[in-house]
Design brief:
This protein has 12 helices and 12 strands. It is of the alpha/beta class. The protein folds into 2 domains: 195 residues, Isopropylmalate Dehydrogenase; 112 residues, 3-Layer(aba) Sandwich (Rossmann fold). GO terms for molecular function: NAD binding; oxidoreductase activity, acting on the CH-OH group of donors, NAD or NADP as acceptor.
Length: 355
């Protein structure tokens, strides 16, 4: 009997509902065509509209709700009329931390239909970025006092724990080990941040002893930005803190050609909780409702989701179809094409039909 996977669909804000709807069409078509598994998407209405109606971005039982699913497909969060720190902490960070989705994984490569803007990347880009996703500057520690006074003070405490560093470091070494180059760069800022970042370096050195076949090095985050531009071929897998990798992963997507095709996974490697898969691009309110949002990042995120739940062959077939469509020039305007979102969906579904 073929398995059925229960997926939470959380479209969210902006172009989120457009790209998630597009992806559901494609994944359901794939499951139907292959006939090896069934996929059941359940809509969850969390987001800014929900916030304006209820005063909160997610329901009180959001964690228990999500734990009923095998995985989640997320669109975007953020709206022009709600401060970003309210929307982000209200939805995404309210899920990532409590569910301990501590590994944020972002594959970045020169995708068919994108043009790498780097003349140094003669062979294109193929990187794997691993971001610690549960603490650092995003741990929620800190506060403000004397608000509105000239002497108002604000602190943002970066929290680093040995247990969290060790688990993300092991995950990063395992990821590097699974790739042909077996090479890992550990990004820190331990010359000036002499506590948390030095602990990162120390734990990396300790964990490396369990992976003698992985060549690794450490690099300061500022120097890493230069290396990404000047020597892209020298990079394979990168691991870093929540804040550093948040920034570097967007830079990486831009260097590869477009943030419009960049996927991400919020993983609980222990599999005690469902992992959440989302495009990197955000809510993009400048194009919301125009029908031209690029769904490829969400397609790729869904492919990563299929790998995670055990349907690796289906994921490979999905990516094969998406790449064929992009290589044929069926592209949205952000990649220089003239297709709309639904046009890309129909083209990918037509390729799936040929499988």
């Amino acid at each position: 009997m073929s398995p059925t996977y229960r997926i939470a669909s959380i479209p969210g804000d902006g172009i989120g509902p457009e790209v998630v709807s597009a992806t559901i069409q494609v994944v359901e078509k794939l499951a139907q065509k292959l006939g090896k598994f069934q996929i059941d998407f359940t809509h969850i209405p969390w987001g800014t509209k929900y916030y304006k109606e209820t005063g909160q971005y997610v329901s009180d039982d959001c964690l228990d709700t999500l734990r009923k699913f095998d995985a989640g497909l997320f669109g975007a969060v953020g709206a022009p009329d709600v401060p970003d720190h309210i929307s982000l902490w209200g939805l995404l960070l309210a899920i990532r931390g409590p569910l301990q989705l501590y590994a944020n994984v972002r594959p970045v490569r020169t995708f068919p239909g994108t043009k790498c803007p780097l003349n140094t990347a003669t062979e294109g880009i193929d990187w794997m970025l691993v971001r610690e996703n549960s603490e650092g500057e995003y741990s929620g520690q800190g506060g403000r006092s004397h608000i509105g006074q000239e002497w108002e003070a604000a602190t943002e405490v970066a929290m680093f724990t040995r247990v969290a560093i060790k688990r993300i470091m092991r995950f990063a070494f395992e990821t590097a080990q699974s790739r042909p180059k077996k090479h890992l760069i550990v990004v820190t800022k331990s010359n000036s941040m002499r506590n948390g970042m030095v602990l990162w370096d120390q734990v990396a050195s300790e964990v490396s002893k369990d992976f003698p076949d992985v060549a690794w090095e450490k690099m300061l985050v500022d120097a890493m930005t230069v290396r990404m531009v000047a020597k892209p071929q020298s990079i394979d897998t990168i691991v870093g803190t929540n804040l550093h990798m948040d920034i570097l992963s967007d830079l990486a997507a831009g260097l590869a050609g477009s943030i419009g095709v960049a996927p991400s996974s919020n993983l609980d490697p222990t599999r005690k909780n469902p992992s959440i898969f989302e495009p990197v691009h955000g809510s993009a309110f400048d194009i919301t409702g125009k029908g031209i949002a690029n769904p490829v990042a969400t397609f790729w995120s869904a492919a990563e989701m299929l790998v995670w739940i055990g349907e690796k062959d289906a994921a490979a077939k999905l990516m094969q179809c998406v790449e064929t469509v992009c290589a044929a020039g069926v592209l949205t305007p952000d990649l220089g094409g003239t297709a709309n979102t639904q046009g890309v969906v129909e083209a990918v579904c037509a390729e799936i039909e040929k499988l």
